Amino acid sequence: MSEKKRIIFHLDMDHFYTAVEEREHPEYAGKPVVVGADPKQGKGRGVVSTSNYEARKVGVKSGMPISRAWRLCPEAVFLQPNFPLYIRVSNEIMAIVRKYADKFEQWGIDEAFLDVTARVKDYAEAEALAKKIKREISEKERLTCSIGVGPNKLTAKIASDFQKPNGLTLVKGSEVQQFLEPLPVRKLLWVGRKTEEKLKTLSISTIGELARYDPSVLTEVFGAMGMQMFLNAHGIDRSEVEPRTEVKSISHETTFQEDTAEADIVLEAMDVLCEEVCKEALNQRLFFKTVAIKVRYDNFETHTRSKTLPFMTARARDLKKSAKGLIQVYLQSRRKIRLIGVRVSAFVKSEKQKTLC
DNA sequence: TCTGGGGTCCTAGGACCC
DNA sequence: TCTGGGGTCCTAGGACCC
Asked: Which pLDDT tens digit goes with each residue over A6-31?
């Protein structure tokens, strides 16, 4: 029952959004660049999506409130994300990368896993292949990436993050435990802020401490996830590199400029979201059965309500009617609303698109 | 610090059916 | 009159990813 020997790459583009912007705008060279919400002189809502290394030097990081980024670095070039551009560049990069893998899995817009087991005979060849991929991306796209190489996805992912930007880190099977041992548990995939905090109460802060902990206690505290974490801490991860399956939900959401309790404003915004969601569903030829809405109050308390229709549809009229019904309870509360969202799921792919629309 | 927007997966309770 | 067990679907919330 020994684990099949594999060689997995994880490729991660370096500060992707800002890198693309810098490529398109040479005049930004050497300046701090921040892609995210509009800072509005420090009064903007929203967060930083990506910052380049000049901005990171003064502490501007992904996920930070844009107002704080503005205070830290008012001289930065602040840009709103240009997703159509990023998606186009992403598609070009993925086309380059996927031809080097037997199995390929895109992970978000700017990351990918490659199973190259059948393409290389050892880590020396893997290193040469990784360099070749980096060179091709650099020549064709004028962008850099970091690649991690390891015996599984877990190790490859952590390795790609180990030296950035423009890094290449190889971790052989025999070196995995030693490599992971000193790292904080937060580096493990699926260990986020909440799990990190919970682990801290058990006096676990490094992957090594997690590996030495009693797995039965971990199972008690975290359920199935506990055993998963324990195995991962030992460098064990049998998950396959596999292509993303079909889309399971489509959603749009929006945060208001100012929190509002006005039903008219909320309903009008919701109609727009419904239109956008329907347009996308139709583009992908998907009919949906389940409609969900999301409401976030001004204190960040968040609720969702959903309803499964007795029929499938892709019509905006049906979506608007359902969404309107679902949001009523929240409007009646007269509390100030910060955000609303609309989501559809439970898809049926249509072969008869034309006749039904 | 004052917290976007797009997703996936898991859990748990209740309804309903056989 | 109080009581099965299994299976599936629906709903709400939450954690996590980029």
From this structure: 999 999 999 999 999 999 999 999 99
